C-alpha cells in the first residue's frame, strides 16, 4: 500500500483483544512495507558499518606503502557512500510510508466504528477520549509500527559487525562483541518506570483534552452563567498536571539517553586502551586498531534505535490499548442482519412496552422520564446500543435487518442533534426520497428567521443556502439549531420518522406553527414524536402514555388530559398541591361547597390548569 492509494478499500477486522495484539495485527498487515524498510535499512546500516573497515584498510595501505590496496580502499569507500545515500533515502521513504499507512488504517477503523455505534459511542467512551485516540494516539501507534523495521535492521547490523570484528581481529572483536549487548540491554531496568510515567502523562493529557472539549462545547452556557473563569481555572490545573507529568517523563528518558551516551564512551575508552597495548606488543596492526575504534564510534548510531524502539513501544502501548478498547465496542445485535435487505413498511410496534404507531399516522408519546424516552426512541430505530426485544415494522424485526436498511426504514432524531460545519445546502444534502424539497422542509420547520440570520452573517453568500454554518452550529441559538436539524430530518422523508423532543428549545408561537407544518408535511407517513408539549400533543392523531416501561394509556390529548391523572401531571407539570386542589374542586361540585367564595377560587384555579395544557 502506497500513500497515493489511500484510503484502504477495506481496512480489515482488527484484533482488539489487547493493545499488544492490536500492534501485532497492524504489523502483520504491513509485512510488504516492513520487509521493504528492513531491506533498505540493512543496506544503509551495513554501508555505514563498512566504513571503518575501509578506513582501516586505507590506513594500513599507507603504512605499508601499497598503492593498489589504497585504491581498493578508496573504491570500497565510494561504494559504501553510495549505499549509505541510497539506503538512507529509500529507508526514510519506506518508513514514512509505513507510518502514514498504519495511522490511516487506524483512523479508518475508528471512523468505521464511530459510524457503526453512532450516538452510543459517546455514551460508552468520553468524547475527549475519542478525540485523543483519533489524533495523538494514532500518531504514536504509527510511530511504533514504522520503527520496528528500522530497529530490526539496526539489530541485525550490530550482530553482523560483532561477528565481523571477531573474525577480523579476535582480540578486540571479543571485547566489542561482549560490550555491545551489554549496552543494548543496559537501559531495560529503567523502561518499566519510564513506561509508567509515560502512561500517567497520557492519562493526564487525555483528561485535559476531555475537559477542553467539554468546555468548548458548553461555552455558550458557561458565558450565560458566568462560569468561564471557573472552568478556565480547572483547565489551568489540568494543564499544569500534564506539564508536571511530562517533565517527570522527560527526566526519565533523558536519563536513558545519558546512559546510551555514557556506556558507549566507556566501551570506546576500554577498546582504545586495550588496543594500544596490543599494538605495542605487535599483536594487531595500526589499521586493525583504527577499524575497531571506528566501528564502535559508528555503532552508536544504530544503537540509538534501541532507545527509539523502547520509547516508541512505551508511548504506543497505552495508545494501542485505548484504540483497541474503542474498536472492541460492539452493538448487541448483528448489524449485518440475517434477513434480505428489503425496506419493510407497516405499523411500528415495540413488544417490550406495547407501543404501537399505526402506519401513516402521527403518534405522540408522553414519557415522564426523559432518559427512558431517549432509550425507547433509540430502540424504535432498530439495532439499539443496549440488548432487548426487537421493534417490529410491518411484522419484521428491525434488528434482523442490515443496519443501513433499518436506518433507511426508520430515522431517529435524538434530542440533541449535531449540525456539521459547512453550508446550509451541504447540511441538507442527505440521502432522501426526493418527495420533500429543502424549501418545503425549511418552511415546515419555521426556519425563516434562521435563513435571515445566516444571510446576514455571511456577506459573501447571496443565497442563504450558501451561507456557512459554524462548527456544531455554535453561531446559532439552541432553537435555531433545533429547527435546522428538524428540517434536515424532514428532507430525508423516511418511511418512519422518530423525533425526540424536537421543539424543546423554541417558543410556544413557533412551536404551534411547527406542529401544524410537521403534521401537514408528514401526512400519509408514520411519525412518532416524543414530547410533553400540549401544542404537539393536540395535533397528534394518537397519544400514548408510557410509564415505567409500559403503555398505560392511549387516546387523544384532550381526552387523556381529563381522564388520566398521571398524563395530566406530566403534561401540565401539575404539583401535588394543585392536584389536591383539583380533587377538592371536583368534590365541591358534586357535594356543594361550604363557601361560595372558596368554590369559585377552586374552580378558577382548575380552569387555569386546564388552559395551561
Short précis:
This protein has 613 residues and is α/β, with parallel strands linked by helices. It has helices at 19-28, 31-63, 67-117, 120-124, 127-168, 170-185, 191-217, 219-225, 228-280, 286-327, 370-380, 403-409, 424-427, 438-444, 448-457, 478-492, 508-521, 534-539, 557-563, 565-572, 576-591, 596-612, and strands spanning 348-350, 355-357, 362-367, 392-393, 396-397, 410-413, 422-423, 468-469, 496-500, 526-530, 542-547, 550-555.
Coarse structural class: alpha/beta
Distance between the termini: 64 Å
Count of DSSP-assigned helices: 22
Rough outline: elongated
Return residue spans where pLDDT drops below 50 for at least 5 consecutive residues: 592-607
Strand content: 5-15%
The Cα radius of gyration reads 36 Å
DSSP helix fraction: 55-70%
The total count of strands amounts to: 12
Largest sheet: 6 strands, mixed
Mean pLDDT across all residues, rounded?
Answer: 83
Strand order of the largest sheet: 6-9-10-3-11-12
GO molecular function: ATP binding
Organism: Streptomyces cinnabarinus
Subcellular location: Cell membrane
Region (Disordered): 576-599
Amino acid at each position: 500500500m502506497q500513500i497515493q492509494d489511500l484510503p484502504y478499500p477495506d481496512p480489515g477486522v482488527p484484533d482488539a483483544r489487547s493493545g499488544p495484539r492490536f500492534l501485532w495485527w497492524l504489523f502483520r498487515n504491513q509485512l510488504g512495507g516492513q520487509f521493504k524498510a528492513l531491506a533498505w535499512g540493512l543496506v544503509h546500516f551495513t554501508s555505514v558499518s563498512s566504513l571503518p573497515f575501509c578506513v582501516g584498510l586505507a590506513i594500513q595501505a599507507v603504512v605499508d606503502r601499497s598503492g593498489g590496496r589504497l585504491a581498493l580502499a578508496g573504491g570500497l569507500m565510494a561504494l559504501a557512500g553510495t549505499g549509505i545515500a541510497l539506503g538512507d533515502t529509500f529507508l526514510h521513504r519506506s518508513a514514512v510510508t509505513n507510518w502514514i499507512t498504519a495511522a490511516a488504517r487506524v483512523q479508518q477503523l475508528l471512523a468505521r466504528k464511530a459510524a457503526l455505534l453512532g450516538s452510543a459511542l459517546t455514551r460508552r467512551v468520553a468524547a475527549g477520549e475519542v478525540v485523543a485516540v483519533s489524533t495523538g494516539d494514532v500518531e504514536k501507534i504509527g510511530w511504533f509500527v514504522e520503527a520496528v523495521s528500522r530497529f530490526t535492521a539496526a539489530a541485525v547490523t550490530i550482530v553482523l559487525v560483532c561477528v565481523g570484528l571477531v573474525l577480523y581481529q579476535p582480540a578486540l572483536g571479543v571485547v566489542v562483541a561482549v560490550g555491545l549487548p551489554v549496552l543494548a540491554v543496559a537501559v531495560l531496568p529503567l523502561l518499566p518506570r519510564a513506561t509508567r510515567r509515560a502512561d500517567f502523562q497520557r492519562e493526564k493529557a487525555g483528561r485535559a483534552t476531555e475537559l477542553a472539549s467539554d468546555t468548548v462545547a458548553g461555552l455558550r452556557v458557561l458565558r450565560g452563567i458566568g462560569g468561564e473563569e471557573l472552568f478556565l481555572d480547572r483547565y489551568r490545573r489540568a494543564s499544569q498536571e500534564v506539564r508536571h507529568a511530562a517533565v517527570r517523563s522527560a527526566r526519565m528518558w533523558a536519563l536513558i539517553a545519558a546512559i546510551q551516551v555514557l556506556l558507549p564512551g566507556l566501551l570506546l575508552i576500554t577498546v582504545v586502551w586495550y588496543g594500544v597495548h596490543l599494538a605495542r606488543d605487535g599483536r594487531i596492526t595500526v589499521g586493525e586498531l583504527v577499524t575497531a575504534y571506528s566501528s564502535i564510534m559508528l555503532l552508536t548510531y544504530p544503537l540509538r534505535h534501541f532507545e527509539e524502539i523502547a520509547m516508541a513501544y512505551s508511548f504506543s502501548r497505552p495508545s494501542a490499548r485505548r484504540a483497541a478498547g474503542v474498536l472492541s465496542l460492539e452493538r448487541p445485535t448483528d448489524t449485518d442482519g440475517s434477513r434480505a435487505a428489503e425496506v419493510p413498511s407497516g405499523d411500528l410496534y415495540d413488544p417490550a412496552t406495547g407501543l404501537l404507531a399505526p402506519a401513516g399516522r402521527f403518534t405522540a408519546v408522553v414519557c415522564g422520564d426523559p432518559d427512558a424516552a431517549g432509550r425507547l426512541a433509540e430502540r424504535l430505530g432498530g439495532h439499539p446500543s443496549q440488548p432487548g426485544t426487537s421493534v417490529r415494522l410491518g411484522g419484521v424485526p428491525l434488528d434482523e435487518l442490515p443496519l443501513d436498511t433499518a436506518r433507511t426504514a426508520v430515522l431517529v432524531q435524538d434530542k440533541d442533534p449535531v449540525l456539521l460545519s459547512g453550508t446550509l445546502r451541504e447540511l441538507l444534502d442527505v440521502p432522501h426520497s426526493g418527495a420533500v424539497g429543502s424549501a418545503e422542509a425549511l418552511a415546515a420547520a419555521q426556519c425563516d428567521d434562521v435563513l435571515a440570520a445566516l444571510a446576514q452573517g455571511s456577506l459573501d453568500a447571496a443565497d442563504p443556502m450558501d451561507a456557512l454554518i459554524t462548527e456544531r452550529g455554535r453561531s446559532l441559538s439552541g432553537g435555531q439549531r433545533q429547527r435546522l436539524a428538524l428540517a434536515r430530518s424532514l428532507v430525508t422523508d423516511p418511511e418512519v420518522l422518530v423525533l425526540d423532543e424536537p421543539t424543546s428549545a423554541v417558543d410556544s408561537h413557533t412551536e404551534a406553527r411547527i406542529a401544524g407544518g410537521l403534521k401537514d408535511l408528514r401526512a400519509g407517513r408514520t411519525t412518532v414524536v416524543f414530547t410533553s408539549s400540549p401544542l404537539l400533543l393536540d395535533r397528534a392523531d394518537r397519544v400514548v402514555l408510557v410509564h415505567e416501561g409500559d403503555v398505560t394509556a392511549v387516546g387523544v390529548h384532550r381526552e387523556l388530559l381529563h381522564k388520566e391523572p398521571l398524563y395530566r401531571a406530566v403534561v401540565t407539570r401539575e404539583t401535588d398541591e394543585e392536584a389536591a386542589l383539583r380533587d377538592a374542586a371536583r368534590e365541591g361540585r358534586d357535594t356543594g361547597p361550604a363557601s361560595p367564595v372558596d368554590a369559585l377560587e377552586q374552580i378558577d384555579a382548575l380552569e387555569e390548569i386546564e388552559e395551561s395544557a
